[in-house]
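Risk mitigation, structural track. In case the binding assays with S-adenosylmethionine fail to produce interpretable data, a predicted complex structure has been prepared as a fallback.
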Amino acid sequence: MRVHIPEGIRERSEELFLPGVPRIMANRQNTKAGISPEFYATLDVGDTRQRIAFAGVREMVTKYCGGANKALDYGCGAGRSTRFLKEMGLEEVVGVDINQEMLQKAVEKRIPGTSYLQIKSGQLPFKDCMFDLVFSGLVILEISKAREIRKILKELKRVTTDQGTVIILTCTKEGYLTDSDHFEVMLTPEQQANIKDGDPVPIRVRDTGQVFTDYYWSNEFLTSTLQEVGLTTVEVKLPTAPDQDASPRPNYAIYVSKKYAKSIW
Ligand SMILES: C[S@@+](CC[C@H](N)C(=O)[O-])C[C@H]1O[C@@H](n2cnc3c(N)ncnc32)[C@H](O)[C@@H]1O
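Fallback model:
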């Protein structure tokens, strides 16, 4: 299967690109061992509690990224978020991930205007200032080390155009207090009450019984780390859907940042 690679994106060797990438082994350290690419590939932005999150992302992209053409989807998984961005009208969306099996699923469902590339964590084979929009959805919560998150955010900033936007979607503390359609949070009430940055959050997939681990990162940690790497947070959107959701607590947070902007803080 051939994968479309947009002009100007290719910078390093050909073999970085799927499907010719098996020589680069996925870094499995941070991947969700209990959540299979097959299962992930069945999820769409509309059919889990995450629909609320992606509705919020759509709103933020519309509000802050008018005129954006090229987007990067960092931690694209099985390509759900990449297709979502493309279907919002961006010309070209590149999905990158460390997990080869996830990428294989993404390639199987590839739509025109998207391409996929396997990377090592926090290392992007792109020139500076290449993407108008850099999105990373539900990825930070898979990373156990603060320094790794800092490294990734720095790299995301580097590849963003000067007028571009970085949008990070992640789970809030409230998100780890409630179970959702597919997932059950396995923290005791005491652990939930005392949760702090970097704490592991074991989660069970209802259908399969498999357990994987998220890592909790607070709003304070994320906003200060964005600031540290030179990204200014212009909005933190906490989407809820009171009409669809019986408990309208913000389970997700969307951080919208710019390279050079006046901070809201
Ligand atoms: C929960 S999935 C989300 C996938 C996609 N963004 C979506 O919303 O459908 C998280 C993805 O992040 C990837 N990931 C985890 N750690 C990563 C890292 N350090 N760098 C890049 N991708 C990473 C995983 O391999 C996985 O595919």
